[in-house]
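User: Could you check the structure of this?
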Amino acid sequence: TGFKAGAPDARATLVEYGSLHCPHCAHFAEQGMPEIAGRIRAGKLQFEFRPFLIFPQDIPATLIAKCVPASRRFAFIEDYYRNSAAVTERVRAAAGELNAMREQGVPALNRRVVAVGQMKPIAARHGLAPAAVDQCVSDPKNMAWLEAMQARASAAGVTGTPTFEVDGKRIRLASVDDLKAALD
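Assistant: Sure, the predicted structure tokens are below.
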């Protein structure tokens, strides 16, 4: 499963398949999370964020989201979305260096993407120390979890982000009004 918030017995369940570098996902988080958070607090909604990888920098960013304390996970995701455009620009600027590192393996590449993208300060704001970030993005168990998440999303027919499901049914959401209508 992905990252969950809210009561398991809530009357509605909203699942979002998202990429931490998807500008549409970031926009949805900015616009829709206040509504989602209110419904979670009221016990009316369980929300699950299921990572879906699109960009290379999604790998370490999503692993960091997994490793921050569970109580800080959604705050990290929201904070990360606010910073994702800048992270992406820094990673793009270092594309040549990062491509050359691929032969050193995924753990080394992940650590370098974290460094180039300046992800550690974001993680630190949410309780994950710099050394813990390096361990997190290098851990084979975390990579196996991420690969399994990606395989499940692909098997579910997810091809892009954001993709939403309400109570197990795939829906289209273009606005907060669409979200409210789908949940009411």
